[in-house]
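Page 47, continued from p. 46.
Same chain as before, 198 aa.
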Amino acid sequence: MVGEQIFRPQAALSALARRPEGAAAMALVGLRVAAVGGFVRDALIGREPRELDLVVEGDPAEVARQLGGEVVRHPQFLACHVSRDGWSIEVTGARTERYPRPGALPLVAPASIEADLVRRDFTVNAIAVTLEGELIAPPGALDDLAAPRPLPPSAGLRGRSVERIAGGRGGPRHRERSADRNRAAPDCARARPARATR
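Result:
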């Protein structure tokens, strides 16, 4: 696969280490934590990340506490928002989501980081790098990053209207598809930890 040959987890770890809150994240102990979403996407393609999203197998409030800064908790969603050093950091517990009816808020349950990636909107936002340097991605995600294209909802990620995302702010709003497309455990590809690469 092209993407697996191009992208290295060390790019995300280096971007993380350049920021004070990233360095604080890298010092976290006791839980499996990964940078995910836009941060990893931007770091892997050589852009300077402007946001930090962390996913943790465990209590996001504990990670938020270790990061320091102002913390706002959202326990019903297994999430915390941390403001620190001029950055906003989203810390979520690895989770699955189920939508009981169209338009309803999700019902969440703790899960692995791999299972959490399935709920994300597009493959390029479902790439994670653990703080130990392990690259985790759904099948084809790194290839999608090399030549960006949205993953169709039938591939297992929760689908959102392409028009809504492509339209950006102020564009036409479309309803999210309400069907629960989560799977118990995604078939995520793994790369060796960055410290072990040649």
